[in-house]
Write a structure and sequence with these properties.
The chain is α+β, with helices and mostly antiparallel strands and 413 residues long. It is built from twelve helices and twelve strands. The termini are far apart. About 3% of the residues have low confidence. Pathway: Phospholipid metabolism; phosphatidylethanolamine biosynthesis; phosphatidylethanolamine from ethanolamine: step 1/3.
C-alpha cells in the first residue's frame, strides 16, 4: 500500500504521526470519510486514476464509529484475489463519540497505539484527524460474545493477553528496543487504572441532590478500594501478585477481539492453534493483572449482562493457566515456562477479589455516558446493572450472604 500524503497533512505532536486537519461527520459519512482517506492516499481517488472507495460500517462498539474503507479491486479478477486486494488496501477509520474526551485521554490513546505497534501488538497507526484515527486493517473477523466461551478462542485470548502483559512496559514512552522492556515498573506510572477511575468519578454530574449524594458515595467506595484491609479498606490497589502493574487493554470485550485467518484456509488441520488480535486501545492503562482478567470474564455476558454466560471456576482456571504460561514465557524470553498449581491458585484468588471492580468501573463510566452520548443505548440502565454487580461483591466481601444470579454463576465449579 503506497502512501503519497496530501500537502494538507502536518506532523502530529506524537512521534511525527501525520495529522489531517479534517473531521469525520456522521451526517455526511461517506463524503467526509472519502476526504480523509484521499488526503492520506490521493492515488486511490478516481480523479487521480484510482478505483475509488467502498465502505463497511462496523457497529459492535457503543461509543465510536468504525468504518472499513478499502480501495476498490480491479474489475474482472477472481473473488479470492479481489478479497486479498481489499484487505491489503484497507484502512480502518475510527471516529470518536461526542464529548468522549471527558472519559478518554486521546493523546495517551495515540501513544499507547504507537507503543503497541512497536511490539507488533497493534496495526500501524497511519494518521490522526480532528475527531479520530486512521490505522491499517487487520484481516479476520470480529469475535462474537458466544465465541468467548469456545475453548480454542478462550485459550487464544489468554495466550495473547499473556504476551501483552509479559512484554509491554507500563510507560507509553518505549525503550530503545522491545528486548530492553519489562512488564513491571519500578515506580507507579502517572496514569493507571486508579487515576482514570478517579478522573471519571470527578466528572460525574452532581447538579442535583441525588447526583451529589451518589457521587459522594462512589468517591467513598473508591477510597476504600485503594485503602488496605488494616485501614478499613478492601486492599485491591497494589494486589498484583508481586509482578507489578501491567499494561492492560482494559476493554477486552468480544468486539475488540479479532479472530485471525488460520493457516490452511477454510479447512485448517484440527490441531491448528487459533490466533487472535486485540483492537481499540482507548482505555489501555497500567493496571493490576487480576483486574484485566476479571474485566474480560465479565464481558462473557455481553452488553446484555447475561450472567448465565459467565465462565465457571473451571473455565476461569483453564484461561488463567494458559495466560500464566504465556505471561511467564514472554516475560522471561525463555522457550518454555513451567507453571505451578500454586501460581494458578494465587491468581485465581486475586481475580476473585477483583470480580466486583469491573462493575464499579463501567458503572461509573456509564453514568457519564448517559449525559453525553448521542448513541442509541440506555447507558443509565446499564450503569445501574453494572453498579449492582459491585454492591453484590461488596456484600460478599463483608461476609454477608449474596444470592444474585451473577454471584451464583461465578461460584459454579
Amino acid at each position: 500500500m503506497s502512501t503519497k500524503p496530501s500537502s494538507i497533512i502536518t506532523a502530529s505532536k506524537i512521534d511525527g504521526l501525520p495529522n489531517i486537519p479534517l473531521s469525520y461527520s456522521v451526517a455526511n459519512s461517506q463524503a467526509s470519510a472519502s476526504q480523509l482517506i484521499y488526503s492520506l492516499f490521493p492515488e486511490w481517488a478516481p480523479a487521480r486514476g484510482g478505483r475509488g472507495l467502498k465502505f463497511v460500517r462496523f457497529t459492535d462498539g457503543i461509543t465510536n464509529t468504525l468504518l472499513k474503507c478499502f480501495h476498490n479491486p480491479p474489475e474482472g479478477i477472481a473473488s479470492p484475489e479481489a478479497r486479498r486486494i481489499e484487505d491489503d488496501e484497507s484502512v480502518l477509520l475510527r471516529a470518536y463519540g461526542r464529548d468522549t474526551s471527558i472519559l478518554i485521554d486521546r493523546e495517551r490513546e495515540c501513544a499507547s497505539h504507537l507503543l503497541l505497534s512497536r511490539f507488533n501488538l497493534a496495526p500501524e497507526l497511519l494518521a490522526r484527524f480532528a475527531n479520530g484515527l486512521l490505522y491499517r486493517y487487520v484481516p479476520g473477523r470480529v469475535c462474537s460474545v458466544q465465541e468467548l466461551a469456545d475453548p480454542a478462542t478462550s485459550k487464544a485470548i489468554a495466550t495473547r493477553l499473556g504476551e501483552w502483559h509479559g512484554v509491554l512496559p507500563t510507560s507509553t514512552t518505549p525503550p530503545p528496543s522491545p528486548a530492553s522492556s519489562s512488564s513491571a515498573s519500578s515506580s507507579e506510572p502517572d496514569v493507571t487504572l486508579w487515576t482514570v477511575l478517579q478522573k471519571w468519578i470527578f466528572a460525574i454530574p452532581s447538579e442535583t441532590d441525588e447526583g451529589k449524594a451518589r457521587k459522594e458515595s462512589l468517591q467513598e467506595e473508591y477510597e476504600k478500594l485503594l485503602a488496605g484491609t488494616d485501614d478499613g479498606g478492601y486492599g485491591l490497589k497494589g494486589l498484583d501478585g508481586g509482578v507489578g502493574l501491567v499494561m492492560g487493554h482494559c476493554d477486552l470485550l468480544s468486539g475488540n477481539v479479532i479472530i485471525l485467518p488460520q493457516e490452511g484456509g477454510l479447512s485448517p488441520p484440527p490441531d491448528a492453534a487459533r490466533r487472535v488480535h486485540f483492537i481499540d486501545y482507548e482505555y489501555s492503562a497500567p493496571c493490576e493483572r487480576a483486574f484485566e482478567l476479571a474485566n474480560h470474564f465479565s464481558e462473557w455476558g455481553g452488553f446484555e449482562c447475561d450472567y448465565n454466560r459467565l465462565p465457571t471456576r473451571s473455565a476461569r482456571r483453564e484461561f488463567i493457566s494458559a495466560y500464566l504460561s504465556s505471561f511467564e514465557l514472554h516475560r522471561s524470553g525463555a522457550t518454555a515456562a513451567a507453571i505451578s498449581t500454586g501460581q494458578i491458585d494465587d491468581l485465581m484468588n486475586e481475580v476473585e477479589l477483583f470480580r466486583g471492580l469491573p462493575g464499579f468501573y463501567w458503572g461509573v463510566w456509564a453514568l457519564i455516558q448517559a449525559t453525553i452520548s448521542q448513541i442509541d443505548f440506555d447507558y443509565a440502565s446499564y450503569a445501574e446493572v453494572r453498579l449492582a454487580e459491585y454492591w453484590a461483591w461488596k456484600e460478599a466481601f463483608e461476609g454477608r450472604a449474596v444470592n444474585t444470579p451473577r454471584e451464583q454463576k461465578w461460584s459454579q465449579e
